[in-house]
Amino acid sequence: MSKSIVKEIQDCRVSSVLNNDRKQYGKKYLFDGKDETCWNSDGGSPQWIEFSFPEPKSVEQLLIQFQGGFAAKSCVLQTISDSKEQTTSFQFFPKDSNTSQTFAVSNLLPCNKFKLTFESSFDFYGRIIIYNVDIIGS
C-alpha cells in the first residue's frame, strides 16, 4: 500500500545551504511539513538532495513545494547503488510556482538510496528554495 515514507528516511544530505546557515535554512526543514520553514541552497547549479532508507523502497510519487522564482527547471531522481548494479532515473520539469507540485515517478527500481538533482533553476544564481518534500511509496 502506498503512503508517505519521509518519516522512514534514515539519512539526508544536501549540496549546499545558503551562507552555510543550517540553523535557518538547513536540510531538516525539507521534510518537516511546515510552510514557514525551508531549505535554501546556496548559488550554483546543479544542487542536490540525497536521502536513504534502512531498506529498499519503491518511490511512486514525489511532491515538492518550491518558492516561486527559486524553483528548479529540470530535475532528475535517481537510484544510487553501492555496487555495480544498474542505476535508474526519472526526469521531470517543475513549474515556477509556489504551489505544491506532484510528479508521478516511473522507471525507478526499488532502492534504499536516492539522489534528487536540480540541474537548473529559475533563479539567475542557481539557488533552490523548497518548503516541503513528500515521498509516496512502499
TrEMBL record:
GO cellular component: nucleus
Entry's localization field: Nucleus
Keyword Nucleus among record annotations: yes
Native organism: Orchesella cincta (Springtail)
InterPro entries: Galactose-bd-like_sf (IPR008979)
Classification via Gene3D superfamilies: Galactose-binding domain-like
Keywords carried by this UniProt record: Nucleus, Receptor
Keyword rRNA-binding on entry: no
Protein name: Nuclear receptor 2C2-associated protein
Pfam family, one: F5_F8_type_C_2
